[in-house]
Amino acid sequence: MGTFTLRSLIDFLKQYKAAHLAADKEEIQAVVSKQFGLTKKRSVYEGPSFALRFCEANQASFSNTVVGLSTLKEYDDKPFVVCVVRPKELEFLLANSTLLKKISHSSHHLRVDNIRGSFLGHDIQREYEALPNEPANFEKLFALHQQVGWRENVKRLVSATDAIEPTGKRQVFTSSARHNILAAPQLAASLSGRDDYEAVEAELTSLIKPNRAAILKAAEVDNVNLRGKLIEQILTKAANFHRLDDLTRSLRAGTSLTIDIKTKLMNLSSSPKGYNIDKTLEMFARGNTAFSYFFVAIDVAKGEITTRLISILDSNIIDATRIQFHWAGRDSRGVTQLAGDLSWMFDTNYKEAIDVPKGEGFLERLIGTLEA
To answer: How distant, in Å, are the alpha carbons of 13, 44, 233, 275 from that of 55?
Structure first.
């Protein structure tokens, strides 16, 4: 068969099952493999841009073993779909690592550096970020999955799996550390519009022009994580920073500014990953420290690149920040994610605005995600 999409394959299977109610897993597998020319590798069928695993369930529940975590690792960079063949219908679930609650089978030796164990049907989340896990939402769900990546998912799964003992200690901040953390909004407010802070934005923005062609080419990469890393590497290499996670700048009065580069394609809706909450609070706890995003917004069709340096405590950024409790393991406050339309920040008239009481309340909430 010629070019086809995951959606067209799912539609075909639903129609086939509706017309052949007695079709079991073996028949469904044989029909779809022949119709779409899928390649079988052990228990997984591969398409041009997705992977498919067939399971069978005769009851309302779905507790069958799906695949081993090591098998999922091979396909986690593309939509991994489970087709559950039921007596009268088919159920489709996206089962990439982001959509897993835990690992169930033979997982007592699971570690970040020791991938083992399998997941069962009931380990797959039926809803994520208020999106039901169903074909209509697979594209959005997979985009959210791409923001996280395999390694962070494994860390969470290790912590979430019942047989795994916590590897760290619950972090509780001293009164002095809390004081420093809650001073961060006032510091951020004092930096807004200040010449040394604006000079950092100008410096980073100046890196765009000589690297414009390379950035636009990198923006064509489909994988969200890879695209972001490529663009970040282009910018950091250009400035000889040699640090891909954070950039730091020293401002007046000994203030340390940490910068996290984020990329945004203007023609795509996305929910960029934010920051690790514990690491951010630890940073603020040191005192006299600020944290800002440097957004690189790209309009590939127009060949335009826009930038913005903006505090993570900007009032509108706080409104767009979602705390991912799903990612909070036993010893972690989890991570944040930015949601909604972020185009407002690229308006030339927009000015960073820090609401100090609002920022303090937000940080109190971040601290309380574990200590409450």
So the answer is: 14, 11, 41, 36
